[in-house]
Amino acid sequence: MDQLTHLLEGFSVALTPINLLWLLIGAVLGTAVGVLPGLGSAMAVALLLPVTFSLDPTGAFIMFASIYFGGLFGDSTAGILLNTPGNSSAIATTFEGHRMAKDGRAAKALGTSAMGAFLGGMIATTLVVFFAPYLVKLATLFGPAEYFALAAFAFVAISSVVAESVLRGLLALAIGLALAMVGIDGPSGAARFTLGLPQLFDGISIIVITVGLLALGEVLHVASRIHRDGAVTRVSAGGSPFLNWSEFRKAFPAFLRGTSFGVPFGVIPVGGSEVPTFLAYGTEKKLAQRRKDPDFGGRGAIQGVAAPEAAGNATAGTAMGALLALGLPTSATAAMMIAAFQQYGMQPGPLLFERSADLVWPLLASLFVGLIILLIINLPFAAVWAKLLLVPKHYLYAGITLFAMLGVYAIASAEMDLWLVLGIGLLGFLMRRFSIPLAPVLIAAILGPLAETELRRSLAVSEGDLGILVGSPITITLYSLMAIAIGFTLFQALRRRGAKKREAVGASRS
């Protein structure tokens, strides 16, 4: 019960008027930056890092806690309303959330997102406080072979579950891996797919890929249909962001399922919350197919927003625990937080809880308070954000293009990034035209470098022995699940094909 005593002491510090003010300012600033296309939560922490230098350490980290989660809330807001997620962790939410917005349920989608983020973050932070030692042990079980198996599992799961066609899913996966391989190969120093251009030696930023595929691809897709759909079509931005009892009964199990995906991934350095959010979305889509739910892929399903949001913030919550207890940044945003700690001469890790308990426990307590503040801020203002959709399409999408390009250019001030966004946007437009799914491209681009690095490390350790890839219970379990997923998907595809043939035969006879 020592944790509970320390946490109560932390609340006594976090709930002082001045620290509550820093929490409120951080929540507003983090959400505002997160909403801007192309920026996102990691950029929010980076941009606002200098703001905290004049504060005392406790106030600075309490403010960063609310910026950290506020950026995640903002990421999803941009994705739901404009189909332009501020960060890759909000991509999965965009698929159903933007459909809900186009169907006139933007406020409901934002409300669901806020509740999912709140519940996922709250459960994960509670687990961090009381079960941090066990989360640390879980992270130490993963070596290079386990990370590669995890990435391979994510590739196959997303390609087979999210995509309507396995073949199209694998094609999208190949496109994503090709984008991920652009740049200098670390071990050999060879340039790959750079066309001899020095600007491509560092590879293509995931922000460039995300903005190109989702934002610019959507703009071009809408532009191609503007005469068919109407240039100034308006959609309803009204409605309440609060879920009624029927909607809450649908969303609550999805909140819990998403959280169960997100909690363990926050401790594992696989690059952030992309994997659990996509897996959570894929699970909800598969369950919807069994229920024959028409909302998925059509009007937009609440479960498709609830699960990824809970997974994303649950990952962020346990990632903070991994950062404090291990000094291990498991996402780009967490890596930015390490810079903040080092600015005050502190190194996160096991000794931090002993040497700086007066800082750590108020920080953990502020995570709980910050989530409550963000829920209070975001739920009432969901309908206000939704009024962005009342702007006529030709103005709205022109603005999206402008802000997306400015956001991309702000990352590295590189003209090449603008050309890349244009090229990837054209690719995204063609993929929409030919019904090739976007999710496998994004997950491959995010996890491709990790998979390649961990595969090489595994083979280097084993001196080329492939047996190391299946040499532990974790890898065997992951590959077994992957085989089951492939087999089940093929079985479903064959069954659907057989049903269509029987329907065709019956129609011809009649």
Automatic annotation (TrEMBL):
Top-rank taxon of the source lineage equals Bacteria
Transmembrane ranges? 20-49, 61-82, 109-132, 138-158, 165-184, 204-224, 359-383, 395-412, 466-491
Q: Which UniProt keywords apply?
A: Membrane, Transmembrane, Transmembrane helix
Annotated InterPro entries: DUF112_TM
Q: Report any Pfam family annotated for this entry.
A: TctA
Query: Where does the DUF112 domain lie?
Result: 20-442
Identification of the protein by name: Tripartite tricarboxylate transporter permease
